[in-house]
């Protein structure tokens, strides 16, 4: 009898190990699939300030030189198909690393400018190259110069006002102090700092704030942005049902704002899960995405 019990227990252990092995293989296959594809995610944003016809924005972030097909044709086709009024870039299109060419990102963003107006706010990768030009062979300067020549509008702590479909939009791009990206004791951005850098939020028009790092959403809300668009966390690398993001590339556990739409008070925040990877090419239940924002007035 003891031998039978021992045999039964061994069989149960083998079954459990087999299930774990199969699950591990399936997860690996899913990760491989996800880093080679992307999806298009649609969000509807409503506000009483919007009274005209629907305006459509495409939001992109965290490409990190990723290429989908020759010259990024797959990605460009998906974006063109949406017929956007404008494209909002929330940073980290290139890789801020010594010796890494920005060519894939540059070619892609140049192609975007042929679709519609492009508004580009920097992420931490662009910002560190910009703030330390000698360390990166002045790559950012050339990158910005070439894209600006193609009419890409860089919003480095500045704002522009544009009208689409009967509605007036103020689009502001925020660069936070670089310490605001620290992995451990990071600098907590305040409303006063935002105001010091880009002035007060617009009251007369619909205020969009492009701010790469969603860690500081509370300050963006206090600044009274109508819409905040961010990226940075890559959706949290691994996402679980009901829990959302588990851990970010910056090693933040269960981040509050990681990917999706968040409606809180008068501010809507949309965080892109990004369209690429770098350093840690891991995604699980977290497909890269092109985000489409349908801007509408409340019925």
TrEMBL record:
Q: Which UniProt keywords apply?
A: Hydrolase, Membrane, Metal-binding, Transmembrane, Transmembrane helix
Pfam families on file: Metallophos
Entry's InterPro entries?
Calcineurin-like_PHP, Metallo-depent_PP-like, Metallophosphoesterase_sf
- Tell me where the transmembrane regions lie: 12-32
Residue intervals of the Calcineurin-like phosphoesterase domain: 56-235
Signal sequence: where? none
Say which domain of life the source belongs to: Bacteria
What is the name of this protein?
Phosphoesterase
């Amino acid at each position: 009898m003891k031998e039978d019990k021992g045999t039964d227990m061994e069989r149960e252990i083998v079954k459990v190990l087999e299930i774990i092995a199969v699950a591990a293989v399936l997860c690996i296959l899913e990760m491989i699939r996800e880093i080679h594809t992307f999806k298009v995610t649609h969000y509807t944003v409503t506000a009483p300030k919007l009274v005209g016809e629907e305006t459509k924005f495409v939001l992109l972030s965290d490409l990190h030189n990723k290429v989908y097909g020759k010259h990024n044709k797959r990605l460009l086709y998906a974006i063109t198909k949406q017929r956007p009024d404008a494209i909002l870039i929330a940073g980290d299109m290139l890789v801020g690393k010594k010796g890494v060419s920005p060519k894939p990102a540059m070619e892609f963003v140049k192609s975007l400018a042929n679709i519609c107006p492009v508004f580009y706010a920097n992420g931490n990768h662009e910002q560190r190259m910009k703030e330390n030009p000698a360390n990166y062979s002045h790559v950012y300067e050339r990158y910005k110069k070439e894209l600006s020549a193609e009419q890409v509008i860089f919003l480095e702590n500045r704002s522009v006002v544009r009208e689409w479909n009967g509605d007036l939009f103020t689009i502001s791009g925020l660069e936070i102090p670089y310490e605001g990206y620290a992995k451990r004791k990071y600098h907590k951005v305040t409303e006063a700092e935002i105001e010091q850098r880009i002035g007060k939020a617009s009251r007369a028009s619909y205020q969009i704030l492009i701010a790469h790092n969603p860690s500081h959403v509370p300050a963006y809300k206090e600044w009274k942005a109508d819409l905040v668009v961010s990226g940075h966390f890559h959706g949290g690398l691994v996402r679980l049902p009901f829990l959302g993001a588990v851990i970010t590339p910056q090693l933040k556990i269960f981040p509050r704002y990681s990917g999706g739409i968040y409606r809180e008070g008068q501010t809507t925040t949309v965080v892109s899960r990004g369209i690429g990877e770098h350093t840690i090419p891991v995604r699980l239940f977290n497909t890269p995405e092109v985000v489409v924002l349908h801007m509408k007035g409340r019925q």
